[in-house]
Amino acid sequence: MKIKTKIIATLGPASSDVSTLRRMFMAGLDVVRLNFSHGTKTEHLQRIKTVRSLNKKYRRAVKIMQDLEGYRIRLGRVKGKGLVVKKGNVLWLTQDDVLADKNVLSFDYRGSLMPIKKGMFIYIDDARIALRVEGVYKKSLKTLVVRPGRIQAHKGVNIPGADLEFEAFTAKDTKDLEFGLKHKVDFIAQSFVRSADDIILLKKRLPVKNPPLVFAKIENAQGLNNLSEILKVSDGVLVARGDMGISFPIYMVGILQKIIIQRARGFKKPVITATQMLESMTDSVLPTRAEVTDVTNAIIDGSDYVMLSEETAAGRYPAESVRMMNEIIKFTEKSAFYPGKKK
Predict the structure, then answer these.
(1) Quick check: helix, strand or coil at residue 187?
(2) Could you tell me the pTM of the whole model?
(3) Strands of the 104-106 sheet, one edge to the other
(4) In sequence order, what are the residues at sequence separation of 6 or more whose Cβ sits closer than 8 angstroms to the Cβ of residue 308?
(5) Would the pLDDT of 84 be above 50?
(6) Count of domains observed in the chain
(7) Is residue 195 located within the same domain as residue 301?
(8) pLDDT confidence band for 341 (50 / 70 / 90)
(9) Which listed residue, 171, 255, 266, 269, has the most CB atoms within 10 A of its CB?
(10) Average pLDDT score, the chain
(11) SS3 readout for 198-215
């Protein structure tokens, strides 16, 4: 039986050695993802060389995807093991480069703060910490801690609903893209795509002959609102459920996934579904029943690719995660529920 749905696995410290990658190849891997939000170019280059060496040795054609970081607001300096903030505490976010203390925290957004309004929420470290904006000033925000926790240096910051000013293509993305093109990656995933212009700008930087395919990551309200226009100019889309679950109320993610996949199918463009698909396999040899069901539904919805992230980048069972994903795909595609099957 020929499998239609393909598997993408993120490479990281847990999956970069030859032995582990070989086992992932044998388990059913189709594409490796190099996440340029993490790791050095030296590490990524070694991964590229290992993948191509294994392709040659085993006559495989595992593709390479470069995932560009895109523009992300990050916290500044925090001393030691982090800053513990308690519910109800007042915390000032400042654009000044200061070392964090119990009342002040710096962040690296340098545009105007005026689009940020009182009552908006600010999420830190994938929404593990939540702040509510109480006041907006020229270079700082007064916030109230709503969801407490430990804040560590350089964690990501999301401010849903604020139309912030930032470049579609950062200086880091430019250098990373040059690296990817030099080493002839097969796919490029562009983060935080807001409009077709973001993809057009990226494509202008690609070679005319045999350019890599460009996937637009849909993870915010602007990207969703402009989805049809983005699909016209991109080679495919990625349902980025991580940041999507911060940009939108988390209970909307399942339906938004279906909307994006359905729209992509209408444009005959491939679609990747990603984030937390078998996350419990980061530490467990078996996934949860809910995770298996999630992957099954993503396949039935019409995903062309299903993606593993932390499971293979930093988990204890990278090859087993790929194998489990492969088994779910094979069983699902044989079922009467799989699109195109005779019922």
Answers:
(1) strand
(2) 0.91
(3) 73-74, 156-158, 121-124, 129-136, 140-147, 90-94, 104-106
(4) 7, 8, 9, 10, 277, 278, 318, 321, 322, 325
(5) yes
(6) 2
(7) yes
(8) low
(9) 269
(10) 94
(11) HHHHHHCCCCCCCCCEEE
CB count in 10 Å sphere of residue 170: 16
d(CA 209, CA 308): 30
Contact indicator for 110, 92 with CB cutoff of 8 Å: no
The CATH number given to whatever domain includes residue 154 is 2.40.33.10
Kindly list the catalytic residues.
33, 74, 217, 275
Q: Which pLDDT band, with edges at 50, 70 and 90, does 343 fall under?
A: very low
Evaluate whether residue 182 is within a structural domain.
yes
- Of 133, 158, 183, the last residue of a domain is 158
Size of the chain in residues: 343
Distance CA 186, CA 246 (A): 29
- 141-152: average pLDDT: 94
Residues 174 and 33 in one domain: yes
Q: Which of 58-62, 167-171, 336-340 has the highest mean pLDDT?
A: 58-62
Place of tokens 């087993």: 320
Q: Which domain holds residue 91?
A: 73-158
pLDDT category at 1 given cuts 50, 70, 90 is low
Q: Residue 104: phi, psi to the nearest 5? A: -130, 140
